[in-house]
Design brief:
Low-confidence stretches: 190-199
Radius of gyration: 18 Å
Helix content: 40-55%
Number of helices: 6
Distance between the termini: 41 Å
Order of helices and strands: EHHEEEHEHHEH
Strand order of the largest sheet: 1-6-5-4-3-2
Mean pLDDT: 84
Length: 199
C-alpha cells in the first residue's frame, strides 16, 4: 500500500515551535510510509504497531477505565521537540473525533502535562473509500466515519478552551487507491452537476 498524507499545524506558540512540530509530524509520516508497506487498508492496529516498533516511541496509557489516552507517546527530547508528545488515532466512526479531541485535551491539562499533540486522521477520501469500496453503486456518503474536514471543524470549536498544549498538528492519511477513486468519483459528480446547471 502506498499512502497519500497531508500535514497541517493547528497550534504553535512560536514560529520556532511550529518548525519543530512540522519536523516531528513529517518524521511520523515517514515512519508510517515505511512501516505500512504491503497493507491493503488503513486501520488502528497496524499504525499503532508501526509507531511502537519505532525508536523513541512507547505505548500511551489509558486516561481512565474505558477512556484511551494516546496510542503512542514520546518522552524527553525527540527531533528537537522538548517534553511529552502524544499521538492520537482518529480512524473510526464520527463519535471518535470527539473522544480523541477530548482525550488529548485532558492530557494537556491533567498531571500528564502533554506539551505536543499529533492527531492521525483518515482523510475525506479514505473515509469515503472505506464506505464505498466494493459496492456496485457509489454514493456521496462516508457512512458516519471520522474524517479530516469534520475533525478540523470540531477542533476549531475546542481549540479556544484554556490549557491546550502549545503545539498541535494533524496528519491526514489515505491510501492512493482511496484518493484516486474519490477524486474520480467527485470529479465526475462535479462535471455532471455543472452540465446540468449550464446545459
Amino acid at each position: 500500500m502506498s499512502l497519500d498524507t497531508w500535514v497541517r499545524k493547528l497550534r504553535a506558540s512560536t514560529s520556532e515551535d511550529g518548525v519543530k512540530l512540522l519536523k516531528l509530524s513529517k518524521r511520523v509520516v515517514k515512519i508510517l510510509e515505511d512501516g505500512l508497506q504491503g497493507l491493503d487498508s488503513i486501520s488502528d492496529s497496524p499504525i499503532r504497531k508501526c509507531l511502537l516498533n519505532s525508536d523513541g516511541f512507547e505505548s500511551g496509557g489509558a486516561i481512565s477505565k474505558g477512556v484511551p489516552g494516546p496510542c503512542a507517546t514520546v518522552r524527553g527530547k525527540y527531533l528537537d521537540v522538548e517534553g511529552s508528545v502524544g499521538i492520537f488515532l482518529v480512524l473510526g466512526t464520527g463519535d471518535q473525533t470527539f473522544k480523541r479531541i477530548s482525550s488529548a485535551y485532558d492530557c494537556c491539562v491533567s498531571e500528564m502535562e502533554m506539551e505536543t499533540v499529533v492527531f492521525i486522521v483518515q482523510s475525506d477520501s479514505e473515509a469515503w473509500w472505506r464506505e464505498n469500496s466494493g459496492k456496485a453503486t457509489l454514493k456521496n456518503s462516508n457512512g458516519n466515519r471520522s474524517y479530516e474536514s469534520r475533525f478540523l471543524d470540531i477542533f476549531k470549536r475546542f481549540s479556544s478552551w484554556p490549557g491546550w498544549c502549545d503545539s498541535v498538528s494533524i496528519i491526514a492519511i489515505s491510501t492512493k487507491e482511496a484518493s484516486e477513486n474519490y477524486n474520480q468519483f467527485m470529479g465526475v459528480k462535479r462535471r455532471l452537476s455543472d452540465y446540468e446547471k449550464n446545459g
